[in-house]
Amino acid sequence: MGDYPSKRTRSVNELTDQIFEGALKAEPLKDEIYCQIIKQLTDNHVKYSEEKGWELLWLCTGLFPPSNVLLPHIQRFLQSKKLHPLSGDCMQRLHKALRNGSRKYPPHLVEVEAIQHKTTQIFHKVYFPDDTDEAFEVESSTKAKDFCQNISTRLLLKSSEGFSLFVKISDKVISVPEGDFFFDFVRHLTDWIKKSRPAKDGIIPSLTYQVFFMKKLWTSTVPGKDSFADSIFHYYQELPKYLRGYHKCSREEVFHLAALIYRVKFEDDKSHFSSIPKMLRELVPQDLIRQMSTDDWKRSVIAYFNKHPGKSREEAKLMFLKIIYKWATFGSAFFEVKQTTEPNYPEILLIAINKHGVSLIDPKTKDILTTHPFTKISNWSSGNTYFHITIGNLVRGSKLLCETSLGYKMDDLLTSYISQMLTNMNKQRSGRGNSK
């Protein structure tokens, strides 16, 4: 609080960590922290010190509530100081902490810096697959599920079901569990990256992060059901997977889709026809480009383009989605892995995780070798370099061992799909029970 000036410079949240870490681990210390801060704010006539005390109280009320015994005293204190600009905000934060429960980690750097700069509103930029972004207010008590709901409402989506927040930090993109406090998750993630990547030559690795909002689970996705979701998310998330050559498709479909992608880029403008040979990588799956000469591709794309005169950008996106929706691999997350257990399969496998389960695909022919529905998957595990999955029962089931650096993503996706499946089964059961 500035009463005993420090001899050395400290990182922004070094002291807040020391103050709040213990209390988050041991329940009785929560009241102790509240008492100490209130004591420091009582009859404190040093303006700088008092302001720092209020900043600590603001952070504290956003982290955890006091016990029921101490609560009325804290409320009375805040009421007695209602002329202080932070008093009302502290009271609101206290009510939210009582409603949402206690955080798990000390304040994130963003929260500490906000209050030190005298701002009680924190706005966070969120990026979308169509290359747009918007700023949303995030509170200390905001959980990922509320955040997703706020974004869905702002973007006029019909539902937030299947959508998730993702945090991109360093070389990882990790989905935020919907029950987690947003700042807790980011704090936990930055701490984990710090530990796993120690400072080299005194240089601390960059811990800046970006927040993305994307469709994660495609169970109930049907093109045409939600035009905003199709336009902002489904088209732009499916397009790169198609261009990487993960789907099996006919040549006619490829011509048709290339014409639609061109239309999304340029609508009815034909002046870019001459550039088609240069932009084939943006129109055609990468492994098919060499099957024809660039002039043949150009002729075919133009011929299919002319079949749909006057179609708008949004109509073209929907037509694109409706074609790939017919494929069993629509809405998949794809993972290229090296497998070491199944001699009948290629060593390099493409694994697709989607609403049907886990499909094993031959990366050369794009043939689906087998699909394991979620009901048949009994166990799975992952680490930095592997992903293991057991099909059938644990005693007589078959195991697939894969080498991959994306095991964490496969693990999370499988967990989320199976959790969603179980939730839906329980809803159906309770629905049947109520109707009897």
TrEMBL record:
Known SUPFAM superfamilies for this protein? PH domain-like, Second domain of FERM, Ubiquitin-like
Question: Is Iron among the key words of this record?
Answer: no
MyTH4 domain location? 1-116
Q: Which Gene3D superfamilies match?
A: 1.20.80.10, MyTH4 domain (1.25.40.530), Phosphatidylinositol 3-kinase Catalytic Subunit, Chain A, domain 1 (3.10.20.90), Pleckstrin-homology domain (PH domain)/Phosphotyrosine-binding domain (PTB) (2.30.29.30)
Q: Which UniProt keywords apply?
A: Actin-binding, ATP-binding, Cytoplasm, Motor protein, Nucleotide-binding, Repeat
- The segment(s) forming the FERM domain are 122-425
User: What Pfam families does the entry give?
Assistant: IRS, MyTH4, RA_2
The domain of life for this entry's organism is Eukaryota
Where is this chain's protein located in or outside the cell? Cytoplasm
Similarity comment = Belongs to the TRAFAC class myosin-kinesin ATPase superfamily. Myosin family.
The molecule here is called: Unconventional myosin-VIIa
The organism named in the record is Xenotaenia resolanae
Which gene specifies this protein's sequence?
MYO7A_9
